[in-house]
Automatic annotation (TrEMBL):
The keyword Membrane applies. InterPro entries: ATP_synth_I. It is found in: Cell membrane. The lineage of its organism: Bacteria, Pseudomonadati, Pseudomonadota, Gammaproteobacteria, Pseudomonadales. It is a multi-pass membrane protein. This is F0F1 ATP synthase subunit I. One of its GO terms (cellular component) is plasma membrane. Keywords: Cell membrane, Membrane, Transmembrane, Transmembrane helix. The chain crosses the membrane at residues 21-44, 50-71, 91-108, 114-134.
Length: 140
């Protein structure tokens, strides 16, 4: 427990990430990475397969970072810390994704950019879709 400005008490979330509702979204995204990789490899070849894998991993790893950063606090008394951690998580996610794209474009040859972006976009779409499809009670 920490005290900010003498007024707000921030309570750290002791729930492990794998027990939080966001874990279901991350699992869905990991499955999309695997499925996209297998399909791209089977239909378009090995370069497209690992390009899709890299694109999916960029989105997935950035989202894992966001989940760890954003869901550190909970409770009404932690509202300021929650907003700050979500902002920091989103900024870090964007920076991480940009850095990983740069590393892939510089370090991976041959690369199929279309498959890379398809893998990336499929994982982002899976995250958005999973949030929409989740029941009101995400624990069941």
């Amino acid at each position: 427990m920490t005290i900010n400005d003498g007024l707000t008490v921030n309570i750290r979330n002791k729930t492990p990430l794998h027990r939080q509702p966001v874990a279901r979204v991350l699992i869905a995204q990991a499955l999309v990475v695997l499925i996209a990789t297998v399909i791209c490899t089977a239909v378009f070849g090995m370069v497209a397969g690992y390009s899709a894998l890299l694109g999916g991993l960029i989105a997935f790893l950035a989202n894992v970072y966001f989940a760890f950063k954003a869901f550190r606090y909970f409770g009404a008394r932690s509202a300021r810390a929650i907003v700050q951690s979500f902002w920091a998580g989103e900024m870090g996610k964007q920076i991480l994704a940009a850095a990983l794209f740069a590393l892939v474009f510089v370090g991976v040859k041959p690369l199929q950019p279309a498959a890379l972006f398809v893998g990336y976009l499929l994982v982002l779409g899976a995250g958005a879709s999973a949030l929409l499809l989740m029941k009101n009670n995400p624990k069941h």
